[in-house]
Structure prediction request, 364 residues.
Amino acid sequence: MIVKDITNAIEEIAPLSYAEDFDNVGLLIGNYDTKVSGILVTLDTLEIVVDEAIENNCNLIVSFHPIIFSGLKKITGNSYVERVVLKAIKHDIAIYAIHTALDNSIKGVSAKMAEVLGLRNTKILLPKTGLIKKLTTYAPQQEAEKVCEALHNAGAGNIGNYSNCSFNTQGLGTYRGNEDSNPTIGKKGELHTESETMISVVFEKHLEQKIVKALHKYHPYEEVAYDIVTTDNVHQHIGMGMIGELTNELSEKDFFNRLKEQFNLKCIRHSKLLGNSIKKIAVLGGSGSFAIDAAKRSGADVYISADFKYHEFYRAENELILADIGHYESEQFTKNLLADHLTKKFRNFAIILSKSITNPIKYL
Prediction:
């Protein structure tokens, strides 16, 4: 078992292409080809977490938050980030971070929050655009079915709950090969007209390399004509936050008592209570003020997230309750999510859930 085997399994639910542009995800320290002795899963990679990995003979740390976020100009041990990097390198420990790639996964951070709350009928709160691409290519009619099947097998043509989706039209293609050509159909130097099928399929951004490889492998022409464009379509299964419903309506008091119990909260910062029953809940792990308007548009009774600033509580405007439960608290179950996924994939391998409490915020 090497590091790449582990990261491939994680990226099945959270491809790195899902991550936000500002983020720093993937393998931060180490080598993908390193043989793994054990895996420690954590929310944050601090010195105590590296010590925990050493103690448990784990040479791979799978972390939600990236310990290296912005560039390091020197590594002298003068900051907690530098000390973690130095200790990990000294002990040959690889560090892999997934962060916003998992935030944007339908099986990710917010989905875990919704699961803990017992929400049903869940869907993405802020679905992303720019992640769906469309490939158009042209194949001889007698070969079109084989080419289309290869594209589908590579992951193209999946739309929501449907697979093997494509659009095909018939037409005539023309080409003339030069003296260096070796045409599969027709002769070099002669203009050739071929009955062709135009094939159009959509696919997720992270599959592009795999799909183009399949196209070239199964297309009969020496030179394959195709184009790829990025669409503005919304991807309903990729994005930040989650919206769902409680099985039964609760009073505000009962709901907040239940929330404190389920998330082990000492306190909740919230906007004005409205005296309404609570049924529809929006959640977003981590800093979530950017999704307040989306939560309002969704018709949520409560929006649960973290890191709201003073003036942002005014944005509730008596339309819903904003509940700030704390950054760490909103993401605390993420390491369980990752550990559970890896345990299912590698049942006979040492996968350890970190016992370190990495929350930097304390309460009196």
Remarks:
- The two ends are 45 Å apart (CA to CA).
- DSSP finds eleven helices and 15 strands in the chain.
- The CA atoms of residues 260 and 266 lie 7 Å apart.
